[in-house]
Amino acid sequence: xxxxxxxxAAVIVGxxxxxxxxxxxxxxxxxxxxxxxxxxxxxxxxxxxxxxxxGYAGCSGLAAAIVKGEAEIGACPVxxxxxxxxxxxxxxxxxxxxxxxxxxxxxxxxxxxxxxTGSANVILPTFANITGRTTYTxxxxxxxxxxxxxxxxxxxxVLNIQEESELGSESRKDYTDxxxxxxxxxTTDPATKTSTISGLDGAKIATMLNSGVGKxxxxxxxxxxxxxxxxxxxxxxxxxxxxxxxTGFSYVxxxxxxxxxxxxxxxxxxxxxxxxxxxxxTTGGLTKDASGNITAVTGLAGESKFIRTMTWxxxxxxTIKEEYHVIREAGTRATP
Length: 336
Description:
By secondary structure, this protein is α+β, with helices and mostly antiparallel strands. 26% of the residues lie in helices and 32% in strands.
């Protein structure tokens, strides 16, 4: 082959390569897919294992989801907390960058209000009335902020409920058992906050009053400690807030037509419980034989329905108001 042929071949190959290179360069710029530089920065601090343990197709997929706010900053099971910290530093270097994070309830709480503080140029949202896991977004007000620190503490100046109130029946088990034997009792419905007293049978109550525990009840009825009536109990347990039960309570009873029946105020016991009592019969409604045994209950209380509005007061001065319903079914009187 002549020298001229070799030169011509080299020119052709070189020219073709140059053309292809220029074409690919122009096409690359024209058809390039823009990548958020935050994604690249986050991908750079991820481990690069592409294991899929985060639920996304590789580290780049997780980085894109983090930037969009679709994944938490600590979602990488391999990188963990260091990756989350690096991600905050990287994203926050840009003005108006959004830092998305999730705030959950501390252990044992049911709803929480937080107070939050952040480093300079970090604009925080309001953390209030969190009832589960809530996603928030903080904003960086200016470029160049590195590692914005967001400190959250439970705001104890408001009510942070750890336990809801509880509605119960007779607090003394011996009385409960005695009434149960007589077919009388209190059933409670926590959903509607309703207590229903049922099974008021005069003959069975008379039998109960002649038992040991019944005679103890009679002593209370006929003594100076009681207004002279046979009672059955309903208990109310205070909500627990800021790690403590209510320091005080008050309630108002009203008939369904709004007529006020009575009020009471006081302090719950150490377990947050307020015992209350409803009358079934008075001493004047009992008939006794010569030995003092009850032979009949003739003055059994009739049907009654009313609303009890309970106000719980807490150490910080705040209150919780709850509405309860009480139903006492009509009983069957026993005649001598």
